[in-house]
Amino acid sequence: MIEDSLNSRTNLSELGEFGLIDLLTKNLDIKLSSTVKGIGDDAAVMDFQDKQILVTTDLLVEGVHFDLAYTPLKHLGYKAVMVNLSDVYAMNGVATQITVSIAVSNRFPVEALEELYAGIETASKIYNVDVVGGDTTSSTKGLLISITALGMASKEDVVYRSGAKPNDLLVVSGDLGAAYMGLQILEREKAVFKVNPNSQPDLDAYTYLIERQLKPEARKDIPPLLKKLEVKPTSMIDISDGLSSEVIHLCKNSGVGVNLYEDKIPLDPTVIAACEEFEVDSTTIALSGGEDYELLFTVSQEDFPKIKANPHLSIIGHMTEAGEGMHLITRGNTKIPLIAKGWNAMDKEN
Ligand SMILES: [Mg+2]
After folding, report:
1. Do β-strands 326-329 and 335-337 pair in parallel, antiparallel, or remain unpaired?
2. 83: CA distance to ligand 1 center in Å?
């Protein structure tokens, strides 16, 4: 499908590594004063003055983390950046620079990598980060992308997973489950396409779900929003693996328990509709689906008035003493133990 979508094909070997790097990075300019030196020396140089530095990295592997049958390369580049920036925002920080490393087989023409970089460039513009380095090499099979993001925060602003206290409120941004249902739609269309390549799918009803899967947006807006509301979370994490697994991370790192209320979990109406169509339980999807890239955090009870009416935030539970355990309180008021069934990077089924 990559070959189908691109008119011209320049073999990677025609450019050589340095020619390729020059081509791919020619539109990337430096925007931030914290970037002293970007691409073009042995190492990039940054000046964060008195801030603490946040560093996070992610590796995406074709066939494990993405399927090029339905993932446009531009979207893939964009998403690879989002996955990393989301981790910086989850520390209550500001993302500032990224490095991009790719390994690629010669089945990809130069034009395919230009598409990938177009997505990276768009993300770096919208999210105001500088691309300051990386590496490009060949792989025997498929495409690998590794992005490292740098960010900064003042010492008093950094939020860890470990600060939640009993009675703190559990809060999540946005809504959950849409990215996973988007993936189900795309997998179904791929299966249909295999049987009938001439089929013209009507995906209008699923636009939001597919966008959440292919082009997620990291919650850059949440740390400044919390600052404006004068709320400092006691703990925070981003939702990459599914709500239950992230809630458990906060509990274990903070030494607390939780009561999570099923009826408080924010779901978009299109997620509910898709769950009915696929005959799956929407709560299960929100708990285990993953890839939502929303922020999950805890705040002190005192901060309740500051966040209660905010349209971006939902209060979905409260923390308890560790001895009380981690529970989901169902709509029928049954208390069931919360278990991590999140997306597992080592699981071949995914
Ligand atoms: Mg994370």
Report:
1. antiparallel
2. 8
